[in-house]
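Instructor's aside before we start: the two examples that follow are unrelated to each other. I chose them only because their records fit on one page, so don't look for a connection. First example below.
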Amino acid sequence: MNSENNLRKIRESRMMSKSELARKAGISTLTIDRIERGEKCRLDTMRKIILALGFKLDEKDKVFKP
């Protein structure tokens, strides 16, 4: 999966640091950083991020563009 996403905007609007989101999602801060730069990530990683931000899985398009 690729690139365009609203992750940084949503994370910042919730006043979350990268490390806080990474901890909630159970992934590394480096992974958050890479995704915010538009690099690819696995579906499982997307799922963890979506849930950590408080979205339901069917709201994934709010975070990751289809």
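Example two begins here.
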Amino acid sequence: MEFSDTVKKRSSIRAFTNTPVSNAQITALLDLAAQSPSGGNVQPWRIFVLNDDVMTRFKQTVQDNPSPEQPSYAIYPDQLKDPYRTARFEVGEMMYTLLDIPRDDRAGRFARLAENYQFFGAPAAIFCFVDRQMGPPQWSDLGMFLQTFMLAATDAGLATCAQEAWAMKPETVARFVGAPDELMLFCGVAVGQADATAPVNSLISKRFSIDEFTTFVS
């Protein structure tokens, strides 16, 4: 498809079918993502892939280890200010409305949150780690890798969802994939086919207008 169409079509999918994704497909996506730029050509991303029976075993491991863990990092600032706070709130409410889970249904919302830790039913996923010695510039590089990976997946007819929620399960993930101590978990990315019948996948998040985030200097 045209590149602009790929960018517009990519979205965070939160309900997947069980249609398999081959390791060859994932390898091809990673090969494209590896072309992403990085300062000094450091290429700080370190990737672990879950697929097939490994994914099945991992999901069971997560269910067997429900205890809270120390997060790898603060996913959001403690005092997130506007307009960022409102944007985050609005997309959450849009999602729960599509799921028909009202604000006062705390049990329903917690149950939905737990679906993050099953990759929303995706048959495959990647975990993205970065060396603990790396700083904000290398985290930016990792972000460019992730965007390239997700756009490549979209172009290949696959769906993805980048999930920082996995930062809340760093010990379980690192232990399962065998990541060395010097690596820190950043996020997971669910990979598969979108469930076209799931209302949540119709979510289209609002975006700031160009005028809200751009200044043409005169």
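Residues 174 and 185 are 7 Å apart (CA to CA).
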